Structure to design on (172 residues):
């Protein structure tokens, strides 16, 4: 399964606790739901301790098995140095991390190999209704090594897109 494309989404409903659960989606297909069970549901069943659960939708996963070949993919020997850049922004609290990942990847799908959230902070040291999200972007040149100006241009594109799209400000 192409795990790099998995998206986490908030679960609404009465089975799972809304703040302590998630669903996994791959494109339009729901792959799984997991998390802490809703306290109201547990109370109705006289359960006085936390219960966790998960559901896996095998029909939506099986599509990835049908096209599986027995041989592994070819090794891609890219001789150019991969570059990592970290960014930290102040976002409105309602912004979801997967929205950020999707937007950044769309800047240049050939050069941006991976976007990873590595820190989320919500606390009293931040302005009201704000949270800090930090993410790492892995850039892989395709035909020549990046120079400093190319890296700076891609970084500026990321900063401008995130700032405008999410009403975010970069943390210094």
């Amino acid at each position: 399964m192409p795990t790099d494309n998995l998206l986490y989404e908030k679960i609404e409903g009465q089975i799972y606790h809304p703040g302590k659960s998630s669903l996994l989606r791959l494109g339009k297909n729901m792959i799984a739901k997991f998390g802490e069970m809703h306290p109201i549901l547990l109370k109705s069943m006289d359960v006085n301790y936390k219960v966790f659960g998960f559901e896996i939708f095998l029909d939506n996963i099986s599509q990835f098995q049908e096209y599986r070949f027995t041989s592994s993919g070819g090794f891609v020997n890219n001789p150019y140095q991969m570059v990592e850049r970290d960014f930290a922004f102040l976002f409105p609290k309602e912004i979801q991390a997967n929205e950020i990942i999707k937007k950044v990847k769309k800047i240049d799908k050939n050069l941006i190999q991976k976007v990873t959230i590595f820190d989320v902070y919500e606390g009293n040291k931040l302005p009201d209704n704000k949270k800090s999200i930090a993410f790492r972007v892995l850039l892989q040149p395709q035909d020549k090594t990046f120079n400093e100006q190319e890296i700076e241009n891609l970084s500026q594109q990321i900063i401008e897109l995130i700032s405008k799209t999410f009403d975010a400000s970069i943390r210094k």
Notes: The first helix runs from residue 39 to 44. Residues 3-66 form one domain.
